[in-house]
Design goal:
mainly alpha, two-stranded antiparallel sheet, 106 residues, 2 strands
Length: 106
């Protein structure tokens, strides 16, 4: 689900550096409050619609070569975005961990 949230946050003008099953990392030059506000402002339906599956994921879909690209994206959204879980995630308390860059990281 973090991939869905990361795509939506990028559309909110956050520089998302990466994500995994447990976290989303972003460059928050505007401060952690900006990140927190961006998450609070996310609408589950909008977040779902902004999810753009990777080309690799799209290619792995059976018969994807026979379908229009828009249909492939919609099928993958339906398979990967559970709206009930997305709503629950957005309602949970968040823990922001702010770390300085080090060692020549981006």
């Amino acid at each position: 689900m973090n991939s869905v949230l990361a795509h939506a946050l990028e559309a909110s003008n956050l520089d998302v550096i990466g994500f995994d099953d447990f976290s989303i990392s972003a460059d928050i030059l505007k401060g952690p409050e900006f990140f927190d506000r961006a998450i609070r402002a996310l609408d589950p339906r909008t977040a779902r619609n902004r999810f753009c599956p990777s080309p690799h994921l799209a290619e792995s879909l059976k018969f994807s070569i026979c379908l229009p690209a828009g249909t492939v994206v919609e099928i993958l959204r339906e398979r990967h975005v559970n709206m009930t879980i997305l709503r629950q995630i957005l309602q949970r308390p968040r823990r922001l961990i702010v770390a300085d860059r080090c060692c020549g990281e981006r």
